[in-house]
Design brief:
about 475 residues; alpha/beta; binds nicotinamide-adenine-dinucleotide; binds uridine-5'-diphosphate-glucuronic acid
Length: about 475
């Protein structure tokens, strides 16, 4: 008896930070399966197809080599969504699911218009039996919506030789940016939620090409959808917790690194995700917690909603707290002061700036009148421009009382004549900075604000710099 549907062709709708790397890893590990990654964004697709591997639209260590190995062999990036769907036995939905900006649930609920649009495309073009896999992070019970859309096309599929049928699975992605390839190659678990045993086994069969079967968890649809939101909420909660304690350290004389180390050695707590910083960024933590808050309120669980909302409040407070400290230390005004920002991406080893704490902190400093010089090894000027223009009419304005920003592509050039350096992202090259060179070109008193606790503080101090590090009492 057949235990799973044979999968020869896969289509992924959405060639973003998840769709691109995930499908590249599947194509590499399953040479007998043809993988098509389809997107409406022509520019993005042409970058995925660029012969210059440094032009790939997503920067992830190790990704370029894997793309090179499989591209145009069994991995294709295309804008031909119709044919990619028609030919596929299995379709992953890996489109964006941001927070709604208007209408009911604005500011909290997920905007599912991209999920709905792609489900409608699948409903229209799919042939025969198709397994539809939710890869995007979505609210609990979204599989119901997808099923309804697909079901309506089953009813209207007259005229086709074979009736259209669908199975819907939830298969949330747990990769973190910057370590995506390793996370996909060696995941701690793969989660598959569904109610059709054969469909579950088919997806499981794909992962078994490189992942041990005991790491593949099978649950019902709703547990799988809720586990994804819960995992992100728990991770973000740890960061807000440690950032709240960092503030306590600064006023009590404790040291956040010592406290993190001491509590992390308790195996019940664990040592990961205890690194204090300028607040969590990225495209998902905030939106997934907001989603949890919205769902909790929707089901009448107001106290649950309030509980999770607090994680976000501490995050915003952390960003503003750091901005205020910089202003205070620089004698209460940033007018006519040059501040050099090291790092704009939301974490190291990615070019992603979505909801990066750097955005809010830079905006705060510009509003205080600072002239910023921004350097990031992977984020380009136009990306910074998009982020700093959004939601703030004041930023980049020509009014004299407001500050300004400038982009620099050289770390050491950026620092010349500045009053302060602010480290916002934990890039490796910031750990290796020669502070004797930097300090010799800065105005005095010269400050280093290290929100990631990564710089060689002793060297900076020995070069005459004043150093503020997060979670440590200023001596
Ligand atoms: P992204 O914005 O980088 O990519 C989404 C892509 O989908 C875009 O290129 C967009 O053009 C395309 N798209 C949208 N509608 C389409 C349609 N109808 N047809 C074809 N293409 C369409 O987003 P992402 O970061 O890859 O995230 C995708 C999902 O995965 C989100 O739900 C996110 O929460 C989740 N997720 C993201 C990460 C991460 O690290 N970024 C990790 C785990 C889960
Ligand atoms: C996070 C999760 O780690 C992934 O499992 C999940 O799949 C993904 O969200 C998602 O759903 O999008 P990501 O946002 O890429 O991954 O990166 P993280 O490493 O989780 O970092 C998120 C933010 O928290 C960054 O701004 C980072 O600097 C910050 N962080 C992380 C800290 O401030 N301290 C820490 O100890 C860890």
């Amino acid at each position: 008896m057949k235990r799973f549907y044979p999968i020869k062709k896969i289509c992924c709708i959405g060639a973003g930070y998840v769709g691109g790397p995930t499908m590249t890893v599947i194509a590499n590990n399953c040479p007998n399966i043809e993988v098509r990654v389809a997107d409406i964004n022509e520019e993005r697709i042409s970058k995925w197809n660029s012969t210059k591997l440094e032009d790939l639209p997503v920067y992830e260590p190790g990704l370029d080599k894997l793309v090179q190995k499989s591209r145009n062999i069994n991995l294709f990036f295309t804008t031909d969504i119709e044919n990619s769907i028609k030919n596929a036995d299995m379709i992953f939905l890996s489109v964006n699911t941001p927070i709604k900006t208007k209408g009911i649930g604005a500011g909290q609920a997920s905007d599912l218009k991209w999920i709905e649009a792609s489900a409608r495309q699948v409903a229209k073009y799919a042939l025969g039996h198709t397994i539809v896999v939710e890869k995007s992070t979505i609210p609990v019970r979204t599989a119901d919506t997808i099923k309804q859309i697909l079901l309506s096309s089953q009813e209207t599929s007259n005229g086709e030789s074979e009736p259209k049928t669908f199975s819907v699975l939830s298969n949330p992605e747990f990769l973190a940016e910057g370590t995506a390839i390793n996370d996909l190659q060696n995941p701690e678990r793969v989660l598959i939620g569904g109610d059709n045993e054969m469909a579950i086994e088919s997806l499981s069969f794909i992962y078994k090409h490189w992942i041990d079967s005991n790491k593949i968890l099978k649950t019902n649809l709703w547990s799988s959808e809720l586990s994804k939101l819960t995992a992100n909420a728990f991770l973000a909660q740890r960061i807000s917790s440690i950032n709240s304690i960092a503030a306590m350290c600064e006023v009590t004389g404790a040291d956040i690194n010592e406290v993190s180390n001491a509590i992390g050695m308790d195996s019940r707590i664990g040592s990961k995700f205890l690194q204090s910083g300028p607040g969590f960024g990225g495209s998902c933590f905030k939106k997934d917690i907001l989603n949890l808050v919205y769902l909790s309120n929707f089901y009448g669980l107001e106290k649950v909603a309030e509980y999770w909302e607090q994680v976000l409040r501490i995050n915003i407070w952390t960003r503003d707290r750091i901005s205020k400290i910089i202003v205070e230390k620089l004698f209460g005004t940033l007018s006519n002061k040059k501040i050099t920002i090291f790092g704009f991406s939301f974490k190291a080893n990615t070019n992603d700036t979505r909801d990066s704490s750097a955005i809010q902190i830079c905006k705060n400093l510009i509003e205080e009148g600072a002239s910023l010089e921004i350097y990031d090894p992977k984020v380009n000027k136009s990306q910074i421009e998009i982020e700093l223009k959004s939601n703030s009419s004041k930023v980049n304005s020509t009014k004299e009382e407001n500050g300004s920003w400038n982009y620099s592509d050289s770390l050491y050039q950026a620092a010349i004549n500045s009053d302060a350096i602010v480290i916002l992202t934990e890039w490796q090259e910031f750990k290796e900075i020669d502070w004797s060179i930097i300090s010799s070109t800065m105005r005095k008193p010269s400050w280093l604000f290290d929100t990631r606790n990564i710089a060689d503080h002793n060297l900076a101090k020995s070069c005459g710099m004043k150093v503020w590090q997060l979670g440590t009492c200023l001596k």
